[in-house]
Specification:
alpha+beta, 5 helices, 13 strands
Length: 223
């Protein structure tokens, strides 16, 4: 279900009847996420982990305890028909709640704010009424024509699988996640850095059919 302050409830069918407004908001979200994906900042590239080896079975539970974190970066999305990118000015995660502040002069969208939980997301753009959805993944795919798994990213972005769902994981020579398959997506990891004692990926690539989403993290802090 999608609703706005002024327009009242909308069904998923009505969403497709009014795509332009939703599309701009979702592209703002996408732009911010893409900026995070497309390039890694030197902040994360200062440490050489090539000679280190980690025990992922020990590290994964430690990383999972950090359910509050923040990051900055870029995101990029590529399909057969289009390629877009944007900047994530900030992504603050506090348990299930998230607040993402985005900007993209490339897409001509200015600033946008995405807040909420995996069960309810609010999209806000300057000068327009907020838009709500209780099906964030479906909203994005309906508006853009390709999927963006926003409700799964808080796990995948740290190299962790979404709980209670089967997955396959392969590790690199340092013992860190290199590739994971889950919920119809393949997630690839590279450019690891250390946040304290914990290694975190600086680049995350999500692949599904003809969709490629790349996240490049400029600055990332676990709390």
């Amino acid at each position: 279900m999608v609703t706005s302050d002024c327009l009242g409830p909308r069904t998923s069918g009505q969403l497709l009847d009014h795509p332009s407004r939703i599309l701009r908001r979702i592209k703002a979200l996408l732009a911010g996420l893409i900026c995070l994906i497309t390039s890694a900042c030197s902040t994360l590239g200062t440490q050489d982990l090539s000679e280190q080896h980690f025990d992922w079975q020990t590290l994964a539970p430690q990383i999972a305890t950090h359910t509050s974190w923040q990051l900055m970066g870029k995101i990029g999305v590529r399909t057969k028909t289009e390629s877009s990118s944007a900047a994530i000015n900030s992504w603050v995660q506090a348990d299930d709640y998230f607040s993402v502040q985005l900007s993209s002069t490339f897409l001509g969208l200015g600033s946008a704010s995405i807040t909420g939980t995996p069960a309810l997301v609010t999209l806000e753009e300057a000068g327009e009424a907020p838009l709500y959805s209780d099906q964030p993944n479906e909203l994005i795919e309906a508006a853009l024509g390709f999927p963006l798994p926003i409700s799964h990213l808080p796990y995948w972005i740290k190299g962790l699988p979404v709980p209670d769902n089967p997955y396959k994981l392969s590790l690199n020579k340092q013992g860190l996640p290199e590739s994971m398959s889950q919920l119809g997506w393949t997630i690839q990891y590279s450019r690891y850095h250390l946040d304290g004692p914990l290694p975190l990926p600086g680049k995350i690539k999500l692949l599904q059919t003809d969709t490629q989403i790349t996240l490049a993290i400029k600055h990332w802090t676990l709390h």
